[in-house]
Amino acid sequence: MSKPKLGDVAARAGVSPTTVSRVLNNRGYLSQRTREKVYDAMRELGYRPNAIARSLKGQRSRMVGLVFPTVANPFYAEMVYRIESFLADAGYRVILCNSDDHPDLEEQYFEMLLSNQVDGIITGAHSQVVANLPHVQAPLVTVDRPGTQKYPNIRADNYAGARMAVEHLVATGARNILHITSTVSEQNLRLAGYRDALTAAGMTPQVLELGFRTPLPRKRELIERYLKESTAGERADAVFASNDTYAAMALNWARTRNLCVPQDFQVVGFDGTETVRALIPELATVVQPIEQIATRAVQRLLQTIESGRQGRPDDTPSPHESDKEQQGSTADVFPVHLHEGGTLRAITVSS
């Protein structure tokens, strides 16, 4: 599908190309009705003006847009850093947009990036904005976004990693395993892995949902309150957290309560970023291959840019496609491993 041109807008609106140009540049007198006809035609066609006014046909901006929830999160910070580094090596600059998991803000960023005609976009934002876009007129790759079938999704095997961590906890004797997550949804593969592992063990899930945009102090308060106020029979003796930040909060609570870790209370996180592993080397966590994910995301985007295709880069199935990935999507799924730190008991093998 080719990009709509100014002449296409003029034909749809029933005006001359000169009139469309005048509307875009706000020059001369034009009735409000004429302006509305032009804007309606632009929306219907998905036309976006070239804000940086390239004069040579086919010339690239050598810029890529990055849309992620927030680089305040260690995982996204490391991911963005590696993506930017790989793009820089390929001669591209980036425009970084933190969406804060806010759909309206994310939509505005997409509009801004496409209006400036970036050569491509890599997004790890969580909302359904990308899934609902009728057609993105630039190559687009998603990172860690199950459920977006129109575009490639580069991610770690969240389901297998979660199940691996919980099965380890069960094998060490944990009986009340709390899962702390940002959101509860059908697309949350870490939650799915947790639940399936507990169901197989005949145990009851306990899930604490914090919300993505909840301030960190409030998240800490919610975690500590839940752990403190649980009844004796349901009190968690282990936590599997959907990220290392939540795991660190649970670990801090245990230490302030003088619980013996990991003998009395076990903690496992998810992500395994270099920053967290340097600051809390004892934290057990499911380690994502962030460098491999970033490399693959950039590779798929640049392949599409070089080929001149738009929107969805390709339909080539990944050799690592997960059984848990939705049918019809193109996913590159990378394996994870469990870092058995000092907050996780070792599995005792009977002779």
From TrEMBL:
Is this entry keyworded Cytoplasm? no
Q: Which domain of life is it from?
A: Bacteria
Disordered as annotated region, ranges: 306-333
The UniProt GO MF terms for this protein read:
DNA-binding transcription factor activity; transcription cis-regulatory region binding
Keyword terms: DNA-binding, Repressor, Transcription, Transcription regulation
List, alphabetically, the Pfam families matched. Answer: LacI, Peripla_BP_3
Q: Where in the sequence does UniProt note compositional bias of the Basic and acidic residues kind?
A: 309-326
Recorded protein name is: Transcriptional regulator, LacI family
